[in-house]
Amino acid sequence: MQCPSCQSETVKKHGNTTDRRPRFRCCDCRRVWVDAKLPKPARRPRRVSDEQVVTVLGLLCEGVSVRAVERLTGLQQRTILRLLVDLGDGCKRLLEERVKDVPVNDVEIDEIWSYIVCKESTKTRKGIENPEAGDSYCFLGIERNTKLILANHVGRRTSADANRFMARLAVATSGHFQVSSDAWDGFPGAVEAHLGGRVDHGAIRKEFGSAGGIDARRYAPPRLLSSEKYWVSGTPDEDRVGTSRIERFNWTLRTGLRRFVRLSNGFSRKRANLDAAVHVFIAYYNFVKFHKSIRMTPAMKAGIERRPWSLADLLREAEGRAVAVEMREAA
Which domain range does residue 23 map to? Predict the structure, then answer.
């Protein structure tokens, strides 16, 4: 092997990358590089027991932070995050396979705010060049009657990200149904582009205010002053237009996933970790968590599953799909 810079043949092995590819270093010019021609090594066997992974999975889905899980289980932070990303990959494939062409009647869509590394204002003030840093939004769609989360997408609050989310929602649903959204102007175009004549789209515009000045509501939610329902496309039923269910799930997400808790240090440092955490939580919510109002899991209510899953079932299904994806990529 020769150095790509000075063509010297005095080359030594220099560790591995995070995805387990070998690195090399030139002894003459000190350049370090990765040989792209070498295939990616096979998946390393997991050294953590199933019982430990189930414990980690349960803690992460109940609002416990990564460092708190580290203290409770004795596992290293790097190990926990690697497990999270691996399971997030599997849960993403699981949701794509199982939540597909689901018959629906009422769908509510919304976006929930979080941030990566720092808030957008801090990124601008400090001149941070990390493209992932700043405000991040998680787009969500819920079926009003079954409480099933149909689709999600983590990105920016832009029309492009709204279209990506709506494309996933189109694949997850079937038949003619009604969509309810808030008054954000990015939704109408995305709904029309990907759902078109399949939906009746109604929206609700809410106006908020504060009583007693900013100091009186510093740590309190804003006060609802008025709300107005209006037609967007199709023939929506005004009585069914609303976003109460998806906003209630936003509350569940903020209390059940540490990365979304406000006024805390549990924010994400990487978009991949945030995306994985969201997929794990939604898979847990759809297939494992028992919903008291419907007396079963959302997946059972929607007819895509016949029994509630345990965390061990979720681990087996997610990990099996993650391994299958890696095997296809290696082939």
Answer: 1-40
